[in-house]
Design a protein that fits this description.
The chain is built from 16 helices and 22 strands. With 507 residues, it is an alpha/beta fold. Strands 14-15-16-13-12-18-19 form a seven-stranded mixed β-sheet, with helices on both faces. Strands 9-8-7-10-11-21 form a six-stranded mixed β-sheet, with helices on both faces. Strands 5-6-22 form a three-stranded antiparallel β-sheet. Strand 3 and strand 4 form a beta hairpin. The longest helix is centred in the first third of the chain and has 20 residues. The N and C termini lie far apart (82 Å).
Length: 507
């Protein structure tokens, strides 16, 4: 059955999660959720009104004081129980992701694992929230610092990782003692409802974690709401800039992660068989719909480029493309038909601007196919002034740029407005050390194609890939979701002291 053959009334409605239970939407505006593998509408999504949002914030605000006063050790125990339930429900969450996003089940299961790692890190919150103490900073005076939660905080998350990116945010926010409101992508919201149910089963008090659906009206509502203290966002750079500007103007703490154009430098001494295998996964995994996808390979030397193209061409042509139900598939469909059209337009732009299209993925599935499939494309002779170089494609397209030396490669990457992730493939320690020191990018891999930091580090780019002072998760996440308070105390003695009007010096 095609998408056009299914009406909104014939598919289930996805609820919000507010106050510890599923809540049906009450206003009339809705969106459609698709199965990208078939093109069918799989669910109807209610878009919340501002009144519904205000009620959600009110409930979260009411739940916050008791949760903030809960000892960190007891909050950690809730996270431990959530972690166990999350592991048990891994297949259920992966299926929800694949059904609405289209990525392969193996990829979806890997996403759940990477999110689970942040939950494990959050279980250490009693240690992570410890402050500092100095005894006797002055006669009879002690000083110490403490970290306290912010209040109601919100997360606005993208379609490409409907479970992992929310788990980059809310486990630490909750463990730190905040109440959390999640606004997931309208494209694939079901995984967020499973996470909400598991948190409830883990013993999280009602109202501390909430899920509300909507479009820009709800995003702007969160940005303008006086009772929302902080916003975490992952998505495109234009939206990240809007969220950062609007949120900070309204006095909120904001971390807004934007777009990317990630380069991988391939040195002449690299193991090209190994490098080609890594580039295949980094460029075409999840159909290229990753903010850490490698979309540009910078080949140092003409010979390196020729050999790399020779290695990559049969691999790109041999990509197995299919629905998530096909366990042999390497790559699933794109998220929507509209996005597939945009990626096709980028490929056409690359051809018209003079890049060499070595493998054309546009013909793998034609318009008669109901799913939103597209094959892998490979370009050679990409130039820095081309649209396919300058802009984030977010699809299964890899371009090769040829440069004469490592210094030129570094200058090329440092000149790009995006600075999320990069990598170098080499056997030369000196080249790797030069690259990691000189490159102006937030996350760097050495013979690692997707340098996504582990949960006990932090994730974030530079320049137009991040707006705000804090990277996401890790210790940076703890700092983002808490406020530092310094206390200086003296307990009075029996002997009265006289008033002092000069600057205290602790003598």
């Amino acid at each position: 059955m095609s998408a056009s053959a299914r009406t909104a009334s014939s598919v289930p409605a996805i609820p919000h999660w507010i106050g510890g239970k599923a809540v049906a939407g009450v206003q009339g505006r809705t969106g459609e959720v698709f199965d990208p593998s078939t093109g069918n509408v799989s669910a109807r999504l209610p878009y919340a009104s501002l009144d519904e949002l205000n009620e959600c914030v009110r409930i979260a605000r009411a739940a916050f004081p008791a949760w903030a006063a809960t000892p960190p050790l007891r909050r950690a125990r809730v996270m431990f129980r959530f972690r166990e339930l999350l592991e048990q429900a891994g297949d259920e969450i992966a299926m929800a992701i694949s059904r609405e996003h289209g990525k392969t089940l193996a990829d979806a299961k890997g996403e759940v694992v990477r999110g689970l790692e942040v939950v494990e890190f959050a279980c250490g919150i009693p240690e992570l929230m410890k402050g500092e103490h100095s005894e006797n900073v002055g006669t009879g005076v002690d000083a110490f610092s403490i970290r306290q939660p912010l209040g109601v905080v919100a997360g606005i998350t993208p379609f490409n990782f409907p479970a992992m990116v929310p788990m980059w945010m809310f486990p630490l926010a909750l463990a730190c003692g905040n109440a959390f409101i999640l606004k997931p992508s309208e494209r694939d919201p079901s995984a967020s409802l499973v996470l909400a149910r598991l948190l409830h089963e883990a013993g999280l008090p009602d109202g501390v974690f909430n899920v509300i659906h909507g479009d820009r009206e709800i995003v702007d509502g969160l940005l303008n709401h006086q009772d929302v203290a902080a916003i975490s966002f992952v998505g495109s750079t234009p939206v990240a800039r809007h969220i950062y500007t609007t949120g900070t103007m309204n006095g909120k703490r904001v971390q807004a992660l934007g777009g990317a154009k990630n380069h991988a430098v391939v040195m002449p001494d690299a193991d090209l068989d190994d490098t080609a295998n890594h580039l295949m996964g980094a460029a075409y995994g999840a159909a290229g719909e990753r903010c850490m996808a490698i979309s540009i390979a910078v080949a140092v030397g003409e010979g390196t480029a020729d050999r790399l193209i020779e290695k990559l061409t049969p691999k790109v042509k041999g990509l197995r493309i299919g629905a998530y139900t096909d366990l042999s598939a390497d790559m699933g469909p794109l998220i929507t038909g509209e996005h597939r059209g945009r990626v096709r337009d980028y490929i056409a732009s690359g051809v018209s601007e003079g890049a060499s299209l070595v493998v054309d993925g546009r013909g793998v599935f034609n318009d008669s196919c109901e799913g939103f499939f597209l094959g892998g494309s490979l370009f050679d002779a990409v130039q820095p002034d081309m649209k396919i170089y300058k802009e984030e494609i977010f699809g299964p397209v890899l371009g090769i740029v040829r440069v004469p030396d490592l210094d030129t490669a570094i200058k090329l990457i440092n000149a790009h407005p995006y600075a999320n992730g990069t990598a170098i493939f080499t056997r030369n320690g000196s080249a790797a050390r030069t690259f990691t020191g000189a490159i102006e990018v937030g996350m760097v891999g050495v013979n690692v194609p997707l340098p996504v930091p582990m949960a006990f580090h932090s994730f974030g780019g530079w320049r137009s890939s991040l707006f705000g002072d804090h990277h996401i998760y890790g210790r940076e996440g703890v700092r983002f979701y808490t406020r530092l308070k310094a206390v200086t105390q003296r307990w009075p003695r029996d002997v009265a002291t006289r008033s002092e009007f000069s600057m205290p010096t602790m003598k």
